[in-house]
Specification:
- With 267 residues, this protein is mainly alpha-helical.
- It is built from 15 helices and no strands.
- The protein has a domain of 72 residues: Alpha Horseshoe (Serine Threonine Protein Phosphatase 5, Tetratricopeptide repeat), CATH 1.25.40.
- The radius of gyration is 21 Å and the shape is flat.
- The chain starts with a helix and ends with a helix.
């Protein structure tokens, strides 16, 4: 069986096992009131020139960037209606569906896209979504990806997503093994370190978690999440001065990051 057929069957098998009553979540950061003028301008421009694919594609990106996700999906639907064989349109709709919490819809879109062009990036995205849901299809999909795209970049992603799957299933030893495999392929794979840190944190091994997050900021000194979680570990270990310093560094790197009130004041 060709790869496309195998991938489609895997995604189809998953879709058939999904509950049909899943309701999309409304995104918390949908700034429709604050951005209503920008939203209407983009929709008006796209509708004013309905034959302009470029204008509609641009509208999708702008609407996505300001958080008007439902409006962006409506524009993608218009593009799909005109050209349903464009894998990129189905992929974009899948990404937007993920953002509003419509997991089943996202996977359906990825399945359609994979029928047209089963790119490794698309398949990895679908596998990651399945892994987060603890669905066993993720492992089958990852195995297919690894057999077809046998290079370091994709193998590191495969190992990472496998680690995520095991972590979500509560299988910590298997998760650590896959995450270590990922790091062995790509020593700078920050997300793999973070997942290992979270595993230790959830297990109550704060000292081990601290070591992992320390490694993260040593490898990438601009990684805000690394400082944030290192600070959390230090707070749990009663190392308040370092916790405050690292919370503040996390905030400097990411001003939108919420940190404890005592860390803001420095006391």
């Amino acid at each position: 069986m060709k790869l496309t057929g195998k991938i489609t069957l895997l995604l189809l098998a998953f879709a058939c096992n999904q509950p049909t009553n899943q309701q999309p979540q409304t995104p918390n950061n949908l700034p429709v009131n604050n951005q209503s003028a920008a939203i209407m301008q983009q929709i008006k421009r796209a509708n004013q020139y309905p034959d302009s694919t470029l204008l509609r594609e641009a509208a999708v990106e702008v609407l996505d960037s300001i958080g008007a996700l439902k409006e962006a999906i409506a524009q993608v639907d218009s593009l799909i209606k005109r050209d349903s064989l464009r894998a990129g349109y189905w992929t974009k709709k899948g990404e937007l569906s993920e953002k509003i919490g419509d997991t089943t819809g996202a996977l359906r879109c990825y399945r359609f896209a994979a029928r047209i062009y089963p790119s490794p990036d698309l398949l990895l995205r679908a596998a990651n979504l399945l892994a987060e849901q603890k669905n066993d299809t993720a492992l089958l999909l990852l195995k297919s990806i690894a057999s077809e795209w046998n290079d370091a970049t994709y193998l590191s992603h495969v190992a990472f997503i496998r680690g995520v799957y095991y972590a979500r299933k509560g299988m910590a030893p298997a998760a650590h093994h896959s995450l270590d495999e990922c790091i062995g392929i790509n020593y700078n794979y920050m997300e793999a370190y973070m997942e290992k840190g979270f595993l230790y944190w959830d297990a109550g091994n704060i000292g081990a978690a601290k070591k992992i997050f320390t490694t993260v900021i040593q490898l990438k000194s601009t990684y805000a999440d690394g400082y944030y979680w290192l600070a959390n570990c230090e707070a749990r270990l009663k190392d308040t001065s370092n916790a405050v310093a690292h919370f503040q560094q996390a905030r400097r790197l990411d001003p939108a990051m919420a940190i404890p009130r005592y860390a803001i004041s420095g006391r």
